Structure formats: C-alpha cells, structure tokens
Amino acid sequence: VYTSLQRSFFHVTPVDAGVVINRSGINRRGLWLRCIFFLLRIGLFWKMRSVKSIGNFIVFPFMSYFSDIYHCSMSAVPVQLVSLENRRRISGIVDVLPKEFGLRTFGFECLLNVESADADFFVSTDVSLDGPAIMMNTCGDGSEFSDSGFECVRKFGAFWKRVLVQENNTMSPLVDDVWLEYDLRANPASLSAPGIFYWTHSNEEMDGDIQQRDLLINRISQAYLALTKTNLPTSLLHHLKQCFVVERNDKYSIKSVHIGMMISRKSSGLRLVINFPSPEAILSFLRGAGWPGSICSLSPFVEEWYEMADRVNLNIDISEKGLGMKLGFELSFCNRRSPAREPRWAFLLDYLVRNKMCCPSKMEGLMTYSGYQEYPAIKGIIAESSETKAIKDACRMFLIRKIFHIKVVYDEVPAPVLIAKGYFGVISYFRRGEIYKTAASG
Fold this sequence. Notes:
This protein is an alpha+beta fold. The chain contains 15 helices and eleven strands.
C-alpha cells in the first residue's frame, strides 16, 4: 500500500509528460508527503522491531536518482515508441535496480514493423563505475521480480569481480562492460531474469591466433558455469570453437565480441554479437562456421546494408544443435549523431518503411527522439558517488538521447523474412565547467 501511495504522489504527472523537479531534484508537491510517509515508516519499523529492515525504512522514502533520471528523460520519448503501460512496467524495474545503473546508459528495444508500442528495456554498467559491485548489490527484496532473476545478476557480478582480479595487468580478453536486457514483450505476465550481455575484447586481433581464441572461449565457459552451475555442453562448446576457427586464407579478423546469455528465454544457448569490416568477412564467417542458411540468398541484403551504414554487427545464436537460422544485423553510424546531423538516418528509416519493415509512425518517433537535457540534481549524485572520480569532478550532468542502432532480423523459414527493431535511449554525460557545446547538436 505504501509503495502504491508513493508512486501515486511522487510521480504526479503523466509519465509521458515528464516529472517536474526543482534544483534539488525533489518534486516540490511531494516533499511534505515524503516526510509524512517517512515518519509512518519509522512508526511501522518501531512496531515491527525488525533490525534487518532498518536500511530500507530510512533510505526508501527518498526517490532513487535512477528513478528520477528515468522519469525526467521519458518526457522526450514519443508514445508511439513506448506505450504508457510499458512505461509503468519499466518504472517497476528502475525502482528496484541499484541507482548506479542510471549513471551510464539505459534504453529501449522497439519492434518497428508493428503499430503497438511494447518495448524491451536495457541498462548497462562498466568497470569505471565499479560494475561488479553494482551487480553484486542487486537484491530486489519485496519486488515482483523472480528471485532467480536477481540471483543471476549477483552471480555474474561475482564472476566479473573474479575476472578483474585474475586479469590485472595481463593481455588476456577483459570483461569491460555488461548489459542487462529485460525481455518484456516475451514475458508480459512477469518481470523475470534479464538477458546478460558482456563485452570482451583483446589487444590483438584473433587472426588465426589459437591462444587468443582459447582465452576467449575459456572466459565464455567460466561465465556460463557461474550463471548456470553447469559446464558448457560439449556439443555447444564444439560449435562455439568452430565460430573462431579462422583459416589463414580468410581475410577477416574478430576484434571484439559481445556474448549474450538469454536467461529469460530458458535457453542453454549463447548469442554472439561480432563486428566485421566488410560483407565478404561476414559471409566468409558464416560459411566457415556452418550456418545452415543460403549464403547466396543472404548476400545481396548484406551488401546493401553495408552501403547504407558505417558499422554492421552480426548477431547469431549458438545452441547444442549448431548455429541458428535466424540472424541479426545491427546497422549504425559513426559517432551516433542525431538525425538532424546525420541525414543517413532518414534514408535508412525510409528504406525500412518502403520494405514494410517499419511503420511510418515509428519512423516519425525515432526521427524526433534525439536531443539532450540537463539533469539538475547533480549535487545529490556527486555526494552519493564521491568515490567515483569521473563523477566527483563533475559539476553538470546531461541526459543525451540517441538512436543507438537499427537491427534487421533475417530468417529463411520458409522463405527470407526481414523484421526491423530500433534501439534508442539515454547516455548520462558528466561535464566539468561550461556546458558541453556539442551536446545540443547531438
């Protein structure tokens, strides 16, 4: 009851209209109500005599700055991209995640070929913000999330911490940043475990370098064991190794890889997200790794997408049965400039509309989304993040809204089918001194 009243009084304006905040970051109309509810919680605590709950009673009445940042940024999200009901469910996630997730990047995944505005939600953290500690502190007591969902996040945080200790001052692949993706469209009835994506990179390209390949596969196996408490299945390990067998006559290299574990989908498989410099490199990789689809049918699409985008990342699922038929291609532009400064966004989205992969309303929403706004409650964040130098030295904070990339999903069952998804969201930017002059132009 208290939580429902708190949301009703503190989020007093519609979520699509934003939240009015003052310079201290606290809603003026809710200040006295917060004090009253704070006293009520102290009274309830005294009644319950629960020493274990004292931390929640003292801290919870004051809104997490991640929740505040989220609601502040939602004023600029077009309703055709994220529905009001979807925003409410995402707000439930934001309310129970550690507040430090609001200090880097969070955003949305939206299907573009349908009118419905049901979006998935993702957040990220990295080494500079002590990501392992943030994930290990994820608890969610009393929330509507499944216990296994929070447990997997804590497990990965502990694994990440061990990796950083083991790899200190070494040249082996590092886990640099981690993304949590909440699959709300696939699991509308409950807020379950997120998919976990982590970026591993090496200082050398893996052109036939067996040692680098084995280090990467070993790191993937360790992460799998940490999350599932089981070893990577032998057949899955075989197919994974096959993906990194680089013949000497192949003219491509793997510089960085995102590895995804889709825990929310109850799948034992993995997803690889790999960047390649050319269409020939992707097609050569798929041919060598044993992709079951038709290279001849796929080739014209891949060549066309490389002509439209600066960067193309391949998404491919691996299971015990082998490589999945369905592929994803992430299309993006250098520096992630806004549509106002990057006219190719309009060209790419128009291409999707013409090919029935995007609704006109979704194109309009993405074209108007990018921009920035200053977040006024920076002093409170600095006070709570005094140990993080990048934040401690800041005096201004901006919420930079970006289109990150467009993913085109390719499937051949029974004939080639293309579906597009848009990925967009907010980057928290801390700045010393005068306003970051290029922020306004995206």
